[in-house]
Give the backbone structure.
Amino acid sequence: MQLRTKFILLVGLVVVASYGITFYRTSSFQRQLVIAQAGRQARMLHKQIILTRKWVADHNGIFLLKQPGVDANPFLVEPEVWDVKGRGYVKRNPAMVTRELSELADREGFCRYRVTSLKPTNPANAPDDFERDCLRQFDRGSGELIRIVKTDQGRFLRYMAPLVVEPSCLECHADQGYSVGDIRGGLSITIPMDWAFASIEGNNRTLLFIGVATCLGVGAVLFLLFETLVARRLGMLARAMEQYPGPAGGLAELPGGADEVGQLAGKFRDLCTRLEASQQALDQAREQVFQNEKLAALGRLTAGIAHEINNPLGGMRNCVKSMREDPDDRDMARRYLGLLDKGLVRIGQTVRQLLNFGRREPLHPRRVMVDEVIRECFELLSLNLKDVELVLDLRLDRPYLVDVEALKQVVVNIGLNAVQAMWRGGRLTVTSRAAEASFVLTFADTGCGISPEHLAKIFDPFFTTKDVGQGTGLGLSITYSLVQRMQGVISVESEEGRGATFRIELPAAPTAEGRDGGEAIG
């Protein structure tokens, strides 16, 4: 997952979580506010109804002119009265006034209320489940109770408060055993709440729409800002890293600025500068190490070379001495001059081989007969092979594109390594074979072999098992490096006490990338 995606998702989650908490708290607050407002409305209505009932009770009821639809209350002792003109009046006590006002309010969709009791005088005033539970709690000393109930007709706020018997109430309820201060029932008020919850749901939908739009807007702004300020500039830095090292001036596309990305780009530019300086120093050191190892190998050849030169020199000195002793002997002079010329030619060939081996030349492949290069190397090593039987099985019948000097150093390094492993004598078998797109060289000796714990380290720089002064530990390491630079592969198989076999596979036609690395080798 990209950093941009992670960043936007994380910020998005924080925004959604924050807005979700705010939305939940706002919705809860709205609900609590509406319920509290409805509760206050119910209390005000309760107070108004109580005052109305008290006023009716204080005036011994209300008398309405008797007419159709105005019926007498059968639960009263004196439900009707007549005036002197013969007109009838129907008495309305507080309970009936409460009921008729409730019916009017219910028809108007305002609310409904009624007086109920666990021992109602009128069976129509029997309590429902909510009212019955409230009346029982009133008997245990509870005060007013408020609940939100949901029915088939919708959601309602149910409010109920106890009715306390006052002196004016005894006119109707004294015969029921009540006395002043008793709780004889409760006033139940029911207020419709669908309109309020519909308003809350509408507000919630608006808040949700605003929240979604805000999250999308914040996400889009974050995406654009991150893409412009971070992702695009990091992409430039990543491309510069991928292209490095590349053509000169490739670092010019690094992002600028004084922020963290710009500072990182500046640090990368400084790192590249230090790497280039270090690479130059490393190349110089490697070149010097290669040359030193070549000279070290040359030093190990010195004893044999000295013998190779001293032999003809001794014979030549004898010839010169004899010619001085008898300068008039023309036949001896003619014969000895031929021997002197042959000795000088042999010395010249030996010196030329040494010069060719020690020469510093760039690593440039050219087409040569590989078998001839191998033979030339072992001619140089011939005097080091006094107790070693050399078997050359060379079967490359065409020229190959190789770096001659690198190949010479590889062959001499492995040859000297094999000779040192056979200090008691043995056989060194060198073979060359053509493959499909390469050629393979093998060097098999019958020396002391390599132990398993040393086999994985023989190509490491400065690793050697020879005594001090017998080796630098760089020969096989440089051989490994040269083979890699020639795009080849080197491997070794060995058993301790049974010799070792080095196998080198080089491409028949190195790629342009490998051929262009014209670096001087040592």
In short: Residues 3-58 form the longest helix (56 residues). The chain is about 55% helix and 15% strand. The CA atoms of residues 61 and 93 lie 5 Å apart.
